[in-house]
TrEMBL record:
GO biological process, one term: DNA repair
Organism name: Thalassobaculum litoreum DSM 18839
Positions of the ATP-dependent DNA ligase family profile domain: 322-448
Annotated segments matching region Disordered: 22-42
GO molecular function list: ATP binding; DNA binding; DNA ligase (ATP) activity; DNA-directed DNA polymerase activity; exonuclease activity; metal ion binding
Catalytic reactions of this protein: ATP + (deoxyribonucleotide)n-3'-hydroxyl + 5'-phospho-(deoxyribonucleotide)m = (deoxyribonucleotide)n+m + AMP + diphosphate
Name of this protein: DNA ligase (ATP)
Skewed-composition ranges (Basic and acidic residues): 22-39
Required cofactor names: Mn(2+)
Top EC category: ligase
Keywords, sorted A to Z: ATP-binding, DNA damage, DNA recombination, DNA repair, DNA-binding, DNA-directed DNA polymerase, Exonuclease, Hydrolase, Ligase, Manganese, Metal-binding, Multifunctional enzyme, Nuclease, Nucleotide-binding, Nucleotidyltransferase, Transferase
Superkingdom of the source species: Bacteria
Xref: InterPro entries: DNA_ligase_ATP-dep_C, DNA_ligase_ATP-dep_cent, DNA_ligase_ATP-dep_CS, LigD_ligase_dom, LigD_PE_domain, LigD_pol_dom, NA-bd_OB-fold, NHEJ_ligase_prk
Length: 827
């Protein structure tokens, strides 16, 4: 992310100075070009590209920045080929009002010729812009209707013609280069797009002053609204070839109807919100159909994300992005009874001509490694994933053919009042929340954070007409004091840590109002009203101790906390002082599942934090434990599984182990995994790297190579990848080192990816979030040979295990000599 703020308002004097050359060059009594500076949009930076039929046809790139438009004349126009560098001559800054200019500049005027608005949208610097302008390299992303993805502007070296009067260059040559991404390719956008992006006119029609033409004319009638299919909340990702996964987006569900008469956008309940998302409507013009009914989600666009950003975008009129994930009708033919795979194929045909990474795009499908994708989504603070059955028809109701798995707890609640504030500057201190349970409106607490000054005033104005004297529900007297009640019509979206023992939202944060969902539809899940009573374990207070978290094994939260208290002496030998990630299931296997990488608010102090710099340069708080209280503190927050780094806190860049995860294809028996473990052991021994085995409590076996801390992560990753590839090369019928599941048919995947900075693997003696509460347990080699499953040690059996029963190899230094021996063997 760039550090420069696009919202910073420039000083008028600075803007005037930047625009002086533009005004000096033009006689506004003879040219229709804009003479007013125009106002910055504020929410997102705008971009346009104009095709200019002057003495020599060229394309003018305009990037909004600090109250004006940075401008370059791209002589041959943009190319989507990364190998083609297009000359871009820096010209005078233009006023913001020039952004969407289209018209004919008369002869004998500066720049005489016809100007076509060829593309328009938004842009964002991917690195600090002011720094890029100085060093001569601007890295940016375009969010246009025709040009999208990443781009570079690189200033050319060499002397440039100077302005003797000012001493400044009047010709600054740059190169415009497309970045390698999904939007790059062989297509020529100049040949493809010959008409105006806004008026659909040619150069000749613009010069003649012809009327505006519709962007597209569809022949089939506009489809009517249909009830949308809804996902059922699940506790885990769904494995198997019968399913695929998609992103759970943080926005508004939308049904888009295309046909004769234009485009309409409906909410999930059938309300016409075309006016709210008007800025998005032109982006549907490139879809390949005479009519269509498309299901999808609208989120904030131009690099913005999150529900609060979407609320701001709606007020500002954009920018937006629409992710399409289903097709109900096309060209008058109903598709709802077809399987998901068939509907998706038809949807992809509709999107054939749509620019990748644009404002209208397809929802990505995750067909492999859903767990890794889920971890990445949660680490990026995303919503989660939705599993969809491939062969299922589309049903306008909630079904288990779509199952959503969320990273964090986030729900809708009914606003039933506001808590009066004792501060004059604040119209209220918090909102009072409720939801329906068994057809009864039930009080669930208050939310007092997530508001800025403008939002406080806006909400107060919205609630004022709904004020009433009596409470619309039953609330304890102590919590009803100072509350102004309102008629329960507003729905708030709220993130929160959990529900307390008395059924109140804990650490709630307001995200925004939802106008697309009626208050009567807001219901409490079955896990919100928990049992009372706390117990103290390892010196920490554990709430809901009798909550059953492993239903089939009938194991409670208390039993899990006690397990980690007892096993702590053995577990900490392997995972103390390592950054870790948690798999949290606050209500057990039948409830929500969250993968948590960074420290959360409200966590016990025993769960310690360390600040770590990530790949993008940002610093985040990670968790680690040093004692039993830390483990139990994580259990108090709903943790069942602990996953740890391969390095410790004092030397994060020096791994002290390699981990090879032997992950079998579904058709293989555990005997095949054991055979693989012994084969890899022998091969590793031959290269001077002894290892010890651990059954994971899942499907496979981990082989752990203890390392002296002399090599860095790149060396460890390189060695692990090379070794895994060598094994696959020597016996390709049994092994693969490649990630895609399609390559794993009948093979064991040697997962080497855990050997890189920030990657995690299951901690020794950690329980797994699987029925039966199996644990990951280190074993002796002769014992491994006798085991029948990787889930051989349920909770009670794991408690009987000890490191003392094992003979572990001594750590080995991953020296240059060892690496070269492996490289020589791998060829």
């Amino acid at each position: 992310m760039a550090s420069d703020s696009p919202k910073a308002a420039p000083r008028n004097a600075e803007t005037a100075e930047r625009l002086a050359r533009y005004f000096e060059k033009r006689d506004f009594t003879r040219t229709p070009e804009p003479r007013k500076a125009g106002d910055p949009e504020g929410l997102a930076l705008r971009y346009s590209m104009q095709k200019h039929d002057a003495s020599r046809t060229h394309f003018d790139l305009r990037l909004e920045w600090n109250g004006a438009l940075l401008s370059w004349a791209v002589t041959k126009g943009p190319s989507l080929r990364t190998s083609q560098k297009r000359l871009a001559v820096r010209t005078e800054d233009h006023p913001v009002s020039y952004l969407d200019f289209e018209g004919a500049i008369p002869e004998d005027n500066y720049g005489a010729g016809t100007v076509m608005l060829w593309d328009i949208g938004h842009w964002r610097p991917l690195e600090p812009l002011e720094k890029g302008l100085k060093k001569g390299h601007i890295h940016f992303a375009l969010h246009g209707r025709r040009l999208t993805g990443g781009w570079h502007l690189v200033r050319m070296d060499g002397k440039r013609r100077g302005d003797k009067r000012s001493g400044k260059s009047d010709r600054e040559n740059w190169l415009l280069i497309k970045e390698e991404d999904e939007a790059a390719g062989e297509r020529d956008p100049i040949r493809r797009y010959r008409r105006s992006v806004s008026t659909n006119r040619t150069f000749r029609e613009i010069a003649a002053g012809a009327d505006l033409l519709p962007l597209v004319e569809r022949a089939k009638p506009l489809p009517r609204f249909r009830k949308v299919q809804l996902a059922t909340l699940g506790d885990s990702l769904v494995d198997g070839e019968a399913w695929w996964h998609e992103m759970k987006f943080d926005g508004y569900r939308a049904l888009v109807a295309l046909g004769k008469g234009g485009t309409k956008i409906y909410t999930r309940n059938g309300h016409d919100w075309s006016d709210k998302f008007e800025a998005l409507l032109p982006d549907f013009a490139s879809l390949n159909c005479d009519s269509a009914l498309i299901d999808g989600e609208i989120v904030a666009g131009a690099g913005m994300s999150g529900f609060s950003d979407l609320q701001k975008a709606i007020k500002a009129g954009g920018p937006f992005t629409f992710y399409a994930f289903d097709l109900l009708e096309r060209d008058g033919t109903a598709l709802r009874s077809r399987p998901l795979t068939g509907r998706r194929a038809a949807l992809e045909e509709v999107f054939t001509d749509v620019p990748p990474l644009g404002a209208v795009q397809l929802s990505p499908i995750i067909t492999e490694n859903a767990s890794e994708a889920f971890e990445a989504v949660c680490a990026a603070r995303g919503e989660g994933l939705i599993a969809k059955r491939r062969d299922a028809a589309y049903q306008g109701r909630r079904t288990r053919d779509w199952i959503k798995v969320k990273c964090t707890r986030r729900d809708e609640f009914v606003v039933v009042g506001w808590q009066k504030s004792d501060k004059k500057s604040r119209p209220f201190s918090s909102l009072v929340l409720a939801a329906h349970r068994d057809d009864t409106l039930t009080y669930v607490g208050k939310v007092g954070t997530g508001f800025d000054a403008d939002l406080l005033e806006e909400l107060a104005s919205t609630m004022k007409p709904l004020a009433r004297k009596t409470a619309p529900l039953t609330v304890p007297k102590a919590e009803a004091r100072g509350v102004q009640w309102i008629t329960p019509k507003l729905v708030a979206e709220v993130t929160y840590a959990e529900f307390t023992a008395d059924g109140r939202v804990r650490h709630a944060v307001f995200e925004g109002l939802r106008a697309d969902k009626p208050a009567a539809d807001v219901e409490l899940g079955g896990d919100t009203m928990a049992e009372d009573g706390r117990v103290e374990i390892a010196g920490l207070s554990v709430s809901h101790p009798e909550r059953v978290v492993y239903p089939k094994a009938d194991l409670t939260k208390r039993r899990v906390a006690e397990y980690y208290e007892v096993i702590a002496d053995r577990m900490l030998e392997a995972c103390a002082d390592r950054p870790l990630s948690l798999v949290r299931l606050p209500t057990g296997l039948d409830g929500d599942r969250f993968f948590q990488k960074h420290a959360g608010t409200g966590f016990p102090d025993a769960l310690k934090t360390v600040e770590i710099e990530e790949k993008d340069g940002n610093k985040e708080l990670y968790m680690y434990v040093t004692d039993a209280a830390g483990l139990v503190g994580a259990v108090q927050m709903g943790t069942l599984e602990f996953h740890v780094w391969g390095s410790r806190r004092d030397r994060l860049d020096r791994p002290d182990r390699l981990v090879f995860d032997l992950d079998p294809d579904e058709g293989l028996a555990f005997a095949d995994v054991k055979r693989a473990a012994f084969d890899l052991r022998e091969r590793l021994d031959g290269f001077g790297l002894p290892c010890w085995p651990m059954v994971t409590g899942g499907k496979g076996v981990h082989l752990v190579v203890p390392l002296r801390r002399i090599a860095e992560w790149e060396a460890a990753k390189h060695y692990a990848q090379t070794f895994a590839s060598l094994m696959a090369q020597e016996d390709p019928k049994r092994y693969t080192a490649e990630l895609p599941k399609a390559r794993r048919k009948g093979r064991v995947f040697i997962d080497w990816l855990r050997n890189q900075r920030g990657a995690t693997s299951i901690a020794p003696f950690s329980l797994r979030a699987r029925e039966g509460a199996p644990a990951a347990v280190p074993v002796a080699w002769d014992e491994l040979d006798t085991l029948k499953s990787a889930q051989a040690f349920p909770l009670d059996a794991a408690l009987e295990r000890s490191w003392k029963d094992l003979t572990l190899p001594k750590p080995v230094g991953l020296s240059r000599t060892l690496i070269e021996r492996l490289e020589e063997a791998a060829g």
